[in-house]
Amino acid sequence: MITPIIKTFRERPDNIDDKGKRKWIKARQPKGKWYTRRTVVAIFLLAFFVLAPIIKIGGKPFMLIDVINRKFHLFGATVYSQDTEIMALLMATVVIFIVLFTSVFGRFWCGWACPHTVFMEMVYRRIEYFFHGNYQRGKRKKTPTKLSIALKYILFFIVTLFFTNVFIMWFTGPEQLWIIWQSPIAEYWEVYVAMAAVTGFYFWIYSYLREGVCTMFCPYGRMQGVLLDSKSITVAYDYKRGEPRKVKGDCIDCGACIEVCPTGIDIKNGTQLECVNCTACIDECNIVMKKIGRPKNLIRFTSKYSIETGKSSIKSVRTYAYSGVLLVLLTALVAAISIRTEIDASLLRMPGTMFQEAANDTISNIYQLKIVNKTDGFKTIKLRVLKPSYSSFYLSEHPIHLNENGSFDGVIILKRAKADISSRNTPVELGLYVGDRILETTSATFIGPRGEK
């Protein structure tokens, strides 16, 4: 006797049929308060994406990633590549925030703020609805014509080209991008090649791969397997209230939640990798519940722990631990930005040298002096020996002139009278001034002859 194979919902991805071929997800456009909220958030994010590199604060771009000149304009503040501690703290803060947010709220980011989801659901899929109409149980309300299909893909390409130029503007600024547009292609052929490659790639993404980015390639989706637990808040089906379906439970198994899902899953099967917490199923289920006269939120933002116990799951040891680490990192980041100096300076002994003794009873040490200007203004730096007293220095280029984000690397000789040296190692401190204002100090050790045997 042959035992029949029972198919389960995890047997294969939802966008692959039983023959292993691509099955197109034909999601119906949802409607409801959650979809309206997502639309408002998407409009804000799209406006930020387009306007952030254009807006200026105090003559500086609000957002600009100037890789060529190794400086970054973040919310109107200029951060240079030399500010490694700030960049490191910023990256660590972002990582911890993602871990904390995901462990508490699941893939909320994916459904509400992920660029792919915002573009796919709020731009490209709406273009489809405009040309082809909405779906009803997997079928279009009106049959698309060849003309409407062609117009859809033409608009897809135009929109993709527009967003590609906006993306490039984040690295060049609007003025430089305008110059590129007005210049011959041969002069900026690298930019045009990059523009064509990015446009072609994302046109393929949004016209063909679509939800496959979320279900097959996104690494963040795989992270939730180790970050989520029974207390994580996600879009979940209240099985205690909904089961058994069509009998005593509130769920009538209408399939409306599946029809609006952009990744084609059945949320009633529990938390799944493909779920991006877009809330489309919440809106659709609430409409059905209203029609049959039963309470809303059969599908809602909640956790397995809350469904089983009726208690809140936000308060947990892990949440408090992540929040504490995040608070420490944010404090350190604010402190690093607040104490950020205008210049960086280092004074290092020349490798392989000790001290030099001149005929006039003067002892000298040779150092390498490095100075970096971390501001967007020209600076004239003058040096003064702060410690020890009665010391002098020789530097071939003094005062030092530094351009924006400029640097100086030279050899400086510190001199002291032999009679003033009382120990073999003496702390040395240099002050760097602009006018009478001290910007930075740097220190090293002066080696003398005393103490030798």
Describe the structure.
The protein has 453 residues and is an alpha+beta fold. It folds into 3 domains: 33-223, no CATH class; 227-314, no CATH class; 343-447, Immunoglobulin-like. It is built from 14 helices and 18 strands. It has helices at 33-51, 84-105, 108-112, 115-132, 146-172, 174-182, 189-209, 212-217, 219-227, 239-242, 256-259, 280-291, 304-309, 317-338, and strands at 56-57, 60-61, 63-66, 71-74, 77-80, 135-136, 139-140, 234-237, 299-302, 343-349, 356-357, 362-373, 379-387, 391-395, 400-402, 407-417, 425-434, 437-447. The strands form 6 sheets. Strands 10, 11, 12, 14 and 16 form a 5-stranded antiparallel beta sheet that branches. A hairpin with a 2-residue loop joins strand 4 and strand 5 (77-80). Helix 2 packs antiparallel against helix 14.
